[in-house]
């Protein structure tokens, strides 16, 4: 890994299947970061956590080329490629579309629908591609470090897990959207999707005691702006979900900007420094229902979009 004086942390926002865009972006970013920057940290929430942990495991295990291939393999495995999984995927996506169109659909708790993809499916996915028993050794080789965000359902406290504290259940908890998955027990408490907490964790880049980055690169999945006013119930529902997904991100960035302001005014000790914030955004306006879509063609298109946008992002830096 290069040491040119510019250190970088990458934060991966969650967004269900849209996080395949993040996988593609990381495929393009990792070789450049590995060669030209000091890569100090990764973080992620929900699908962003899956991408961040996969990238970290591959990068520290065998390098950026392996990380790129592993991200591809994981998301190809996420895709619904068998006839039963494809049919189930279509049913879940269309159910969400019906809900957005105000077509009456019975609400069913994930605790009452054992046939849908759940903990077992996700844990098997992780087990096929990532050996969490190696995390102790990989943590000794860090940086970069990796952090995953969840929310403690019982206490309402945001919780993060870093490096060798991350387990398959931690990554599962970060992706446990409560209307689709059961809560995950960690350390005697129940946890839900990190979309309700730090989406993604960012302030840990500055407060963890580890090397602080000069720049934070944010892969943002939820659209920050919309040109049109949402008027239909479907549009209102989608925009509300987007705003909710960005709420915690903007709170995290407020913290960084405030620290920058205090640094610039000389209010903080020398251990603090100004941190540049850069965005790589997924700007395509898709319906929220597509976040549940695991159609292989859709996943492949998102990965390719991520590669393209990341290439343009890097070109703007040069």
Strand content: 5-15%
Alpha-beta classification: alpha/beta
Give the overall pLDDT as a whole number. Answer: 84
List the helices and strands in order. Answer: EHEHHHHHEEHEEHEHEH
Distance between the termini: 18 Å
Shape: globular
Please give the number of β-strands: 8
Give the domain tally.
1
Q: Which radius of gyration do the C-alpha atoms yield?
A: 19 Å
**Portion of residues within helices:** 40-55%
User: Ranges with pLDDT <50 over ≥5 residues?
Assistant: none
User: Tell me about the biggest sheet?
Assistant: 8 strands, mixed
The name of the CATH architecture is: 3-Layer(aba) Sandwich
Name of the CATH superfamily: Cytosolic phospholipase A2 catalytic domain
Q: Oligomeric form of this entry?
A: single chain
- Counting DSSP H or I runs of 4 or more residues, the number of helices is 10
- Just give the CATH class: Alpha Beta
State the CATH topology.
Cytosolic phospholipase A2 catalytic domain
List the helices and strands and how they pair.
Blueprint: E1 7-12, H1 20-36, E2 38-45, H2 47-62, H3 64-78, H4 83-100, H5 119-129, H6 135-141, E3 145-152, E4 158-162, H7 168-174, E5 184-186, E6 189-192, H8 204-207, E7 215-220, H9 233-264, E8 276-281, H10 296-317
Parallel strand pairs: 1-2, 1-7, 2-3, 7-8
Antiparallel strand pairs: 3-4, 3-6, 5-6
